[in-house]
Write a structure and sequence with these properties.
This protein is mainly alpha-helical and 198 residues long. 83% of the residues lie in helices and 0% in strands. The chain contains 4 helices and no strands. Helix 1 packs antiparallel against helix 2. The protein is rod-shaped and about 100 Å long.
Length: 198
């Protein structure tokens, strides 16, 4: 009788231990998901504010589009609108995609593959944004000059020539800093995911 009781107790402890292991794994996955998601929360907040500002600027250009009286100012306005609307939407979608990876819903290798694709896409958009920001500056400067001052910068460009290199240098360093932040956050998130491997 003692042997049977010992086997029953052993089986019960084994079942409880297995149940405890499952619960522990679920807790670890939930904590990892939370840590991973938190990595992108701050940057998503700032990108959302930036997208909101871009939409306000786009709305302002649309309301005052009649002030753009020449074809080249209208073209600059359309290009500026495209930048202000399309790029923020693409970046926010890429952030949502990488942030909602679903750490606990997939196996490790699938998750790493999806993360790598999402990371490459997000960093590509950031590099693209770095280059397009300078072009955006060149298109939006004449638009706002015309809307706010009634001055066609293309006819009187000598007065504004010094802006271009100064803003170009500023945008270069700002873009590098922003790209570095994105790269650091994605690398940190990747480290969190790699902790699951062990």
């Amino acid at each position: 009788m003692e042997l049977e009781e010992l086997q029953a107790t052993w089986a019960q402890m084994s079942t409880e231990l297995e149940h405890q292991k499952i619960i522990t794994n679920e807790i670890i996955l939930q904590m990892t998901q939370q840590r991973y998601t938190n990595k992108f929360s701050k940057i998503t907040f700032y990108e959302s504010i930036g997208a909101f500002i871009c939409l306000i600027m786009a709305a302002y250009i649309i309301v005052n589009f009649a002030s753009l009286t020449t074809w080249y100012l209208q073209l600059s306005g359309i290009l500026s609108l495209a930048f202000l609307v399309i790029l923020p939407i693409l970046v926010l979608r890429a952030l949502k995609r990488i942030q909602n990876l679903g750490v606990k819903d997939a196996n490790y290798s699938d998750m790493i593959i999806r993360f790598t694709k999402a990371k490459k896409h997000l960093l590509f958009l950031q590099r693209l944004g770095m280059y397009l920001t300078f072009l955006f500056f060149l298109t939006v400067m004449p638009v706002f000059n015309m809307i706010l001052k009634g001055n066609d910068i293309f006819l009187n460009y000598q007065a504004s020539l010094w802006y271009i290199p100064v803003v170009g240098v500023f945008l270069f360093f700002l873009g590098r800093w922003g790209y570095g932040c994105y790269k650091g956050i994605t690398n940190s998130a990747e480290t969190i995911l790699k902790e699951l491997e062990g």
